[in-house]
């Protein structure tokens, strides 16, 4: 199956007005201060690296977390907000956040989340393997385990080549075999991680 954007896939830098240098941080509207810190620091293991009043709304606290790669995630929170004040995402709102995890730790991570009261669902997404859960704000959290140890600077190149193999085969989604073929085409020495099986899922 092909779509209107299929021929637009290209790993080369586009001819744009300018080029950004990567993601610096993503900021979200959170709910309760303590619950947000407990989840992101004490469960996910993101260091809380800055806490200060919001520069535009001093009654709101601005929390910055480092998930481990220097790209920050921040939340606007307040002790006056309740974790049950949840809203479904509308166009322009954040749908979910995805963090990288090690594939060999999936069982341990699942047990830890469920023991802390956060249900988990698990899917094989073809390109990678995913656990899904929620934070105290009702935001969907995806924990991604890469299937192949592809160098970060070549990840986009591999995905674009896997996309090519998907189209050539007439497949609806990229699968592990397309990733493997792409890595072989590009002659990248990328170890394949042993990750337990899971259904592909269609509801995220």
Helix content percent band = 10-25%
CATH class (first level) name of the largest domain: Alpha Beta
CATH fold field value of the largest domain: 2,3-Dihydroxybiphenyl 1,2-Dioxygenase, domain 1
What is the structural class? alpha/beta
CATH superfamily descriptor of the largest domain: 2,3-Dihydroxybiphenyl 1,2-Dioxygenase, domain 1
Q: List segments where confidence is low: pLDDT < 50 over at least 5 consecutive residues.
A: none
The whole-angstrom Rg is 19 Å
CATH architecture of the largest domain: Roll
* Proportion of residues in β-strands: 15-25%
What distance lies between the first and last C-alpha atoms, to the nearest angstrom?
A: 20 Å
Count of helical segments? Answer: 4
**Secondary-structure element pattern, one letter each:** EHEEEEHEEEHH
Largest sheet, spatial ordering of strands: 1-4-3-2
Number of extended strands: 8
């Amino acid at each position: 199956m092909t779509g209107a954007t299929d021929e637009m896939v290209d790993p080369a830098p586009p001819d744009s007005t300018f080029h950004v240098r990567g993601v610096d941080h993503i900021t979200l509207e959170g709910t309760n201060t303590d619950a947000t810190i407990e989840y992101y620091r004490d469960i996910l293991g993101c260091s809380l690296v800055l806490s200060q009043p919001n520069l535009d709304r001093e009654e709101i606290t601005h929390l910055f977390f480092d998930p481990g790669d220097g790209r920050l995630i921040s939340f606007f929170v307040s002790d006056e907000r309740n974790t049950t004040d949840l809203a479904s995402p509308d166009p322009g709102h954040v749908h979910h956040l995805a963090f990288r995890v090690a594939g060999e730790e999936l069982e341990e991570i699942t047990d830890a989340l469920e023991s802390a009261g956060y249900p988990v669902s698990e899917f094989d997404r073809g390109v990678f393997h995913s656990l899904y859960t929620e934070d105290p704000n009702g935001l969907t959290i995806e924990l991604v385990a890469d299937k192949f140890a592809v160098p970060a600077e070549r990840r986009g190149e591999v995905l674009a080549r896997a996309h090519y193999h998907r189209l050539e085969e007439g497949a609806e989604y990229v699968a592990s075999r397309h990733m493997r073929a792409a890595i072989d085409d590009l002659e990248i020495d990328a170890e394949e991680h042993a990750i337990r099986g899971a259904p592909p899922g269609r509801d995220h």
